[in-house]
Please model this.
Amino acid sequence: MKSNTGSSTLKYVSLITLTVQNALLGLSMRYARTRDGDMFLSSTAVLMSEIVKLGTCLAIVYIQTGGLQQLFETLRDTIIRQPVDTFKICVPSLVYIIQNNLLYVSASHLDAATYQVTYQMKILTTAMFAVIILKKQLLKTQWFSLLTLVFGVVLVQLAQTTEQISSTNVIHQNRLLGFSAALSACCLSGFAGIYFEKMLKGSDISFAIGALFVIFSIFLYGYVPKSTMVTTTYKVK
Model:
């Protein structure tokens, strides 16, 4: 009985945490891309976030394995001694790095509310890839919910377009570019998530180790010398 109560509490805590995290993510990204002053590279922000995630996953694996030596042995057995799985994990890693950079482009051209609502389209793309790749069957109520989501996103876009046309202020934003970037990020997010799930189901690797694979690969992809990068500055007021 206590076990069921603890499990239920954990679910609600996780739900609330994810909700707050997603809300703060959109708001903080929008603020960071529209503030005054010098603009940072989006790839730098992606790299720094992955460093934090890398440390978090290493800590989780350390706790699960029970020691530093066991941690290194686990990393050796799952990364070095399984090169095929390591190579496969590079696919979602590359997809995630493109997605994260697209999100910064979208946050630069859409207001926070529109960005948040539009990015929820990832629920639709994830469901579609689940049907195509994992051969899942969705209920009629689930399809209806997805269509309602699409309808809501369309209404938000139309409302924002009408507001922009009727406004007398000059807004240096490209809403089409922002919406296209958000939509592309949704498609990439859905594909990468389902691809990662399929890989985990086909192997005995834990979720923490799998996430560590992805984050480490993103870290390697994201570490690009500044001299080889093109700086794009979005000035939004």
Observations:
- Confidence is low (pLDDT under 50) at residues 165-170, 224-237.
